[in-house]
Specification:
30% strand, alpha/beta
């Protein structure tokens, strides 16, 4: 099952589903929409004959576990609506589907992150590695804000990349940050975190120095400094 989460990603969603619906490795295309999704996004999902569900995004853990529970097959590949499968990964998925008798219960996949349409190679961004193909019988997301997939068993690696078209303009960035800010702020308040002026002023400076200098973000040129600043 290929599971895709979406809300308003019109820029990439059609292409994401076009690649994900490849019959060489996809037996079920499943789309979970946030209840605030754009109607056009749902129409794109219908075009690819996806199984469509709508759920309010209260937190990422429960949202993703809900989607996984709707998968018809044991093995699930999870994508967001701005994440494309590249050709090498498509070949790997096809091989896996033909011969999935390995002892692994999950697979790590490398990400290429595109920031303002530029592939970031530095600043701690590449290679960004996540478990995205997994046996749902032995896997579950935990933690509300910075959700993590826990897999009970051995983890392997797949060749190829997921191409993550993260942010192409400032409006997208503000929308994304606002969502994460709201979820994390509620989480911190519930756990007794207090406001600190020192943290407010010091953390951004520390983050910039870490990403731009220590992790060589300057090697990405203008995009590297923009990423570190933002």
């Amino acid at each position: 099952s290929i599971l895709v989460f979406a809300k308003h990603e019109l820029r990439t969603f059609d292409q994401v589903l076009n690649r994900a619906s490849n019959s060489k490795f996809c037996d079920q295309l499943l789309v979970v929409l946030d209840d605030q999704h754009l109607p056009e996004v749902k129409e794109i999902a219908k075009k690819y004959h996806a199984d469509i569900y709508v759920k309010k995004l209260d937190n990422f853990r429960d949202y993703k576990n809900f989607g996984i529970s709707k998968a018809k097959h044991n093995w699930v590949l999870l994508l967001d609506a701005d994440e494309l499968i590249d050709k090498e990964l498509a070949d790997s998925l096809e091989k896996f589907r033909i011969n999935d008798e390995s002892s692994y219960r999950g697979y790590k996949i490398k990400f290429k992150t595109y920031f303002f349409n530029h592939w970031l190679k530095y600043g701690g961004v590449y290679p960004d590695i996540h478990i995205r193909l997994f046996d749902k019988r032995h896997s579950k997301y935990k933690h509300i804000v910075h959700e993590l997939l826990f897999v009970d068993g051995k983890i392997g690696n797949l060749d190829g990349h997921i191409l993550h078209y993260s942010v192409s303009n400032f409006k997208q960035w503000i929308n994304k940050i606002s969502l994460y800010n709201d979820l994390e702020a509620r989480f911190l308040i519930e756990h007794g975190r207090k406001f600190s002026i020192g943290y407010l002023l010091g953390k951004p400076i520390k983050e910039f120095i870490w990403r731009y200098f220590q992790l060589y973000g300057y090697r990405d040129g203008l995009h590297g400094i923009r990423f570190a600043l933002m």
